[in-house]
Design a protein that fits this description.
Blueprint lengths: L5 E4 L2 E4 L10 H5 L2 E3 L2 E6 L2 E5 L1 H14 L8 H14 L5 E9 L13 E8 L7 H6 L1 E5 L21 H12 L4 E5 L5 E4 L3 E6 L2 E4 L10 H12 L4 E3 L4 H6 L2 E6 L3 E8 L2 E2 L5 H14 L10 E3 L7
Parallel strand pairs: 8-9, 8-15, 12-13
Antiparallel strand pairs: 1-2, 1-7, 3-6, 4-5, 4-6, 5-17, 6-7, 9-10, 11-12, 11-14, 14-15, 15-16
Length: 308
């Protein structure tokens, strides 16, 4: 990965190579961390963080669901992120804030372990690649099911829960695909390993609802708004597995992947990215770079000029 100069940890700006945790940290052994994936984009007004407030709110909610009291306020984390971007001289970047249980008593009871917060940012292109955003990806339905809300908390973006996605990702990669699509515990379409999913059939968009064990994606919400503002109908509902390969268009959305079309599922051709996918993708890309006044409130401009 491409590194930056500094990482923010518990109120201090540390050199990248000095941002370390103890090997006996609770999160390292038991997955007791929550995190966010956020992006800042270069705009005419300077670097701007996309839906920053929403990401920080979800981070706080995830921590609450796992009984972690945040030692910093949202506004403190927002200011730290702004300064980190500026000090690293970045015009656009991926941002990873993480809240985690640190070194303390060993065992499953985490409540006597301290809670730490760190923020890193670095230059990172599209998660699945720019060619994937252009041409689409090949995906397979994973044999692994998405975590059930009866066992864990799909609404929380928690570190340990991502072992579920890791298994699905490895399976798809070793089978020759670029991405996996997970079903929920009832057999309905859920999401990708790190993305929400949309299908288009007869001009109508559909995406799994929050009862399908999805992570309540912030990019997902933005895409719903954009599609509806463009005059399209968007349904949040259960989606059967067969609807994936019978769809006219399929695409994945997320902070890392942005909007990535799916051209093939389980060796069945969906086709090249369709007109609705392209239309929504274009407005989304313009929004991220500050070219759509209608959605300017989604951009949190970094007020301190970067070194660049």
């Amino acid at each position: 990965m491409q590194t930056a100069d500094l990482i923010w940890m518990d109120g201090e700006f540390l050199p990248w190579e000095d941002a370390k945790v103890h090997v006996l940290s609770h999160a390292f052994h038991y997955g007791t961390s929550v995190f966010e994936g956020v992006r800042a984009y270069e705009t005419d007004a300077g670097p701007a963080v996309f839906r920053h407030h929403d990401h920080l709110e979800r981070l706080e909610c995830s921590a609450k669901l796992y009984y972690m009291d945040m030692p910093f306020s949202r506004e403190q984390l927002r200011a730290a992120t702004h300064e980190l971007i500026a000090r690293n001289g970045l015009r656009s970047c991926y941002i990873r804030p993480i809240v985690f249980r640190g070194y303390g008593p060993m065992g499953l009871d985490p409540e006597d372990n301290p809670v730490h917060v760190a923020i890193a940012c670095w230059e990172w292109g599209a998660y699945l690649g720019d060619d994937a955003k252009r041409d689409g990806v090949r995906a397979k339905v994973s044999s692994w099911r998405r975590i059930s809300p009866q066992s864990l908390i799909p609404h929380a973006k928690a570190g340990g829960q991502y072992l579920n996605s890791v298994l699905a990702k490895i399976e798809s990669k070793r089978s020759g695909y670029q991405e996996a699509i997970l079903l929920d515990d009832k057999g309905h379409v859920c999401e990708g390993t790190g993305e929400n999913i949309f299908i288009v059939k007869d001009g109508v968009l559909a995406t799994p609802g929050q009862t399908a064990s999805i992570l309540d994606g912030i990019t997902r919400k933005a895409i719903i708004t954009i599609a509806e503002d463009l005059g399209h109908t968007v349904e949040e509902r259960d989606i059967a597995r067969a609807e994936l390969t019978l769809a006219d268009e399929v695409f994945l959305v997320g902070t890392a992947a942005e909007l990535t079309p799916v051209r093939e599922i389980d060796d069945i051709e969906i086709g090249t990215p369709g007109p609705i996918t392209r239309q929504v993708q274009q407005v989304f890309e313009d929004t991220l770079r500050g070219r759509v006044e209608r959605y300017s409130e989604w951009l949190d401009v970094v007020p301190v000029p970067s070194k660049a």
